[in-house]
């Protein structure tokens, strides 16, 4: 598909055409097999911690959206995969330099050509998004979608950094929990209820 075809498919909401640019979900999950995975959220509280070395020591480092990083000591430096639901400015794209982008948002109109044609691009299926939204009773955040997706993989372990379910708000902006469409209490309860032995919250 060329750029024009992509823009036409996006305008017409041709999901099959857009999905043709994505690696299969099974291939993505296989790429995480056996790995120690660090999923780095954007909670402000992470800036007060010194988890950077542990994050960078993981086999696979996954970050979320624009992934602000206040320091290497708190956030580490690597970005292997980027779970994305917003437009990514060129400055952030260069700063993060992800090896793979996962487009998690159901809003395909936000998806740009550069992202869709990036190496290893993955498009999260709409059915998966809606299934999780139904469980939570609210639109799922990018973070909880990434957790749910990664736990489908036969990975060795998944450690969450910078996840306090909006208790300290987000480094990405100044909005309060009441100003965003997600139910963070439901997301926290979903994580705890799963009791997956591979999952750890740092």
UniProtKB/TrEMBL annotation:
GO MF annotation, one: glycosyltransferase activity
Keywords of this entry: Glycoprotein, Glycosyltransferase, Membrane, Transferase, Transmembrane, Transmembrane helix
Gene3D superfamilies the UniProt entry points to: Glycosyl transferase family 29
Superkingdom in the source lineage: Bacteria
EC identifiers of the protein: 2.4.-.-
Subcellular location: Endomembrane system; Membrane
Membrane topology: Single-pass membrane protein
Protein name, per record: Glycosyltransferase family 29 protein
Source organism of the structure: Paracoccus niistensis
